Amino acid sequence: MAFSPTNFFELTMFNSQILELFVFQYLFILLCLPRLGFCAETDTITRNLVLKDPDTISSRGNVFKLGFFSPDNTTKNRYVGVFYNVSESTVIWVANRDKPIPGSSGSITISRDGNIVLMNGESEIIWSSNVTTSSVDASAHLLSTGNLVLRDDSSGRTLWESFGHPSNTFLPTLRLIDNINTGNKVVLSSWKTPMDPEVGNFSTGLQALNIPQTFTWNGNRPYWRSGPWNGRILIGGQEMYSVYTSGITMVNYPPGTFSFGVPEGKSLMRVTLNSTGSLVETMWNDHTKNWDTTWSGPQHECDVYGTCGPFGSCNALSSPICSCLRGFEPKNSEEWGRGNWSGGCVWRKPLLCDRNINTSSGGKEDGFLRLSYMKVPDFAEQGPPRMIEECRSLCLLNCSCIAYAHDTTIGCMFWSQQLIDIQQFSNVGVDLYIRLASSELDGQKDKKLIIIIPVVAGLVAILICIFIYLLLIARRKGAKEKLDTKLYEAGQTYPSDSAGIVIKDDMDKVNLEEFPLFTFETLANSTDKFHDDNMLGKGGFGPVYKGKLADGKEIAVKRHSAASGQGMEEFMNEVDVISKLQHRNLVKLLGCCVEKEEKILVYEYMPNKSLDLFLFDPSHPSQKILDWKKRFNIIEGIGRGLLYLHRDSILKIIHRDLKPSNVLLDEDYNPKISDFGMARIFGGNKDQANTGRVVGTYGYMAPEYAMEGRFSEKSDVYSFGVLMLEIVSEKKNTNFHNHELSLSLLGCVSQFVFFPPFSCVSNIPQDLINDNLYQAWKLWNEDNGLAFIDQTIYKAEFQREMMRCIHIALLCVQEFPNNRPIISTVLAMLSREIVDLPSPEQPIFAEKWNRSHVTSSQMGVSINNVTLTMLGGR
Question: Out of 657, 666, 771, 790, which one is annotated catalytic?
């Protein structure tokens, strides 16, 4: 191109525009980027980085943020704090509690002396970590636990941490500390009001003198007390005996420095000391996007420290709530009568030791009155870990000992001062032994005799009447048996025309109201005397037979087996539950029979047998029958059946044993949930319960049920998730090889109760962890979910639907119940009413957890795992 002045001018103008654009972009990045983007990419503040209002930094995992905030319903004052990313109004720590910054001119950085500092717009230091350090290479890091730490970059040493100076919130890994040597304590302190984070009146911490326990103080006065720590629970909290508390720890290390804490878990959990002195434990519900309250204390007036004064006992279920201990009377009767119990009570009669009388001169020795289910008083002194009889002897020999108690872990506990903050629990607690004068105990014996003698006489009279009544019944029954021409016992031949429904005398033992009752004769004839050729299969209750009544109607007859481990309780439970239910996805109970030792249930006949036969029997042509459409219909049908049980029926019912063998298929392969012998009915607004007898089938039990006995709708959702994975993969979840567990595996599995097993999985032999949970989770994380799907049903057109089912199933089998969706949400996910699905968390893989968490007496496991499912329908 030839040179010309015009071309030169145009080129110069073009270069000038490029230069202006470059300068503009540079200034934009220089001035605006610090206010727009770095908060999402760093968890660290350095000397070269200034965090200005409203900038934030996020912890790894994006659970917590550090930044500026104003309390709810306020906009004037600004504070620096750490808060949850899911709920920015949920503040867990505040730096400048007593000195807010007016307006939005604040900034945070690392000072020249290596401290974290908060400055206002005039560069005045409002707050500082205030540690003495010679390090100039320091940086602040927001950890994934919510702890803000100041570190020496050259040595990696922690110089300061927010968990050492907490505000009003207790989090996993934060430790309440009491150093009995130096007096140093780490405590929570309440906000002044819900809108003002200034230090309030209440504080919560650990008191390690004598036997460690936790306190809430109102100023310097105790307000609430947890009771002593016995190595497992705090025995002064009634809810501690039933609520799952594994993971709480108290450590004496270094010696004299006691710390109380909870290890880090997967759930978002916190305990907040509010401005009124209440401790409130909450967990984040990702479905409702709210914090669910799981515990609070104090819960009632009896939980408030010393409500009934010295030697007074508080019972929240009584009216009035305060009473003097036995052998005591109000110190001021007038005040006590007006409801002012703070003065407490005094002994009615002086003790032998107080009167300086010895037994050799004729005085009777003091004794002890046992009070059951008690919260033990404050100021307990720990004795040697001896038997309870030795505790009594030691206390009796010491005149200053006025009461004792015993805990298997703590050992002997003695009291020599006044007894205060005693509470009567309903059915848990410790036996407390109060020292009383012998005359008080004699009076108690006389009162007992006055009550016992009439009661015994009445019982004797009742027993005589019962004996006469039974004698008459036996005579009438004997006469009737002589007149009967047919005996209704197994193994005999019965007439084929006996299809009527007859109520036998033995039915009087069972309250079946108007429920249809079959005679044993009728059912024996319908099944050809329970011939093996008519057996459809075996379950936890016993064998199931195909039967045909005289009118040609086909039925399924489930006969109780004496070796099943189930009895009248499970039988009546199933009758009581299923007789009240009507739904197309629940099997219909037609009637029952109770004669002599026989307990039999009669169901509608399901010609296509149970689901496990189609999924796990290699000889069955399931691949040609159960295509993906049928399987998806089965998944939805089971879900609709559970929805009816949980939400739509008159009764709220938890099945507790959902598995393929308990899902029957009708002629159109529609699923029907069966076997309600282990189901539980909830009344009112109750939504979870505990049981001392764990029933069900390993591999399908939710972790909290198998290890704690705690069940709810979410435990059925867990079983449903396992079942979904089996339907998609056509592989049984409990397919373990017979390998002897290594010590490392046993040690790992035994901690499933306490910690998520991330570090354990790599130590478990791969052929041992061969269940669907492990395979599904592993392949899902590797983005290879297609490899998990049964290839005989795979079609590209259903790929997204199959992958979605795996995703939903993994949401259902998450370890913590609060993380699992309810069944109505699961159905909405399946039908795509809910399109976007959250990411699932890692489930517990192995089902061979440490059985020490559930004693043998608690086991009520379905025997299905050790029986064979035989061919046939029911």
Answer: 657
